[in-house]
Amino acid sequence: MSLLIERRELLDRFKRGERRALEEVYRHYAPEVAAFLQRGFTFHSAGRALRFSGYAQPFDLDNALQETFVRAFKESARVGYDGLHLYKSYLLAIARNLVLDEFRNREVAMSPFIDALDSGAGAEPAAHEGEDAAPSSTTSDAPSAGVSAEQEFLRHELGRLYAAFVARLDDKDRTFFRHRFEEQQTQVEAGAACGLSHMQARTLEKKLRRAFLEFMQTNGYLEAYTTTATAKATT
């Protein structure tokens, strides 16, 4: 179903930024965007054929999903959607650009998610991504990532909030958080760096996920992230 094409009254309310309209659009499209971010896609960088393997960890996936909708629900992005092409494709383009921005800005941190594709036999062609593959970052109907003053402000603000959250943690939690989510270590490895058993590391990760999501919500971000979804981070 092409939600915003078939329901023009919803499109009008969505472009005006009405909360209920935003929530309906989020609930309708979030599963498909999450599936795309989990599945991954191929791209080219500096002459290399690469594949983003997708986010396997719920914390990483949730963060990317919410950031996609933060970008998509900004006034400039809502108004920029023409209401003629599939909004799903528009969203997937934003999600794709988000991943590519992260790769350009934090290539080392993103390396666990990126695989080089052999240019010879056995290479996976981009055509195998299927009909849900997002348009490239040059797609004209998607907001240009990383160029506007508004986006630069948003990046700065999210970075400030992230640093503020990390600064609130005690030494053990901060060390685990950085090993687990900044350095992309496994749960076992991050726990071992803090002298924790696997069970203790698992419990601590759940606590930190919940605390981070609640912190962002209290600061005006991830508001579309429902109570049910927040509770899921603790299971």
How would a textbook summarize the main sheet?
3 strands, antiparallel
The CATH class of the largest domain is Mainly Alpha
Question: Strand percentage, roughly?
Answer: 5-15%
Shape: globular
β-strand number: 3
SSE order: HHHEEHHHHEHHHHH
Named at the architecture level, the CATH assignment of the largest domain is: Orthogonal Bundle
Q: Please identify the structural class as seen in this structure.
A: mainly alpha
Q: What separation lies between the terminal Cα atoms?
A: 31 Å
Number of helices: 12
CATH superfamily of the largest domain: RNA polymerase sigma factor, region 2, helix turn helix motif
Q: What is the topology, as strand order, of the major beta sheet?
A: 1-2-3
- The low-pLDDT segments are 119-150, 224-235
What's the CATH topology label of the largest domain?
Answer: Rna Polymerase Sigma Factor, Chain: A
Mean pLDDT: 76
Q: Give helix % range.
A: 55-70%
Radius of gyration: 19 Å
How is this structure best described in words?
- This protein has 235 residues and is mainly α.
- The protein has two domains: 1-121 and 131-139, RNA polymerase sigma factor, region 2, helix turn helix motif (Rna Polymerase Sigma Factor, Chain: A); 148-235, Winged helix-like DNA-binding domain superfamily/Winged helix DNA-binding domain (Arc Repressor Mutant, subunit A, Orthogonal Bundle), CATH 1.10.10.10.
- It has twelve helices and three strands.
- It has helices at 3-6, 8-16, 19-39, 58-72, 75-80, 87-105, 107-110, 149-168, 171-182, 187-193, 198-218, 227-232, and strands at 41-45, 48-52, 114-116.
- Strands 1-2-3 form a three-stranded antiparallel beta sheet.
- α3 packs across α4 (58-72).
- The two termini are 31 Å apart.
- The model is unreliable at 119-150 and 224-235 (pLDDT under 50).
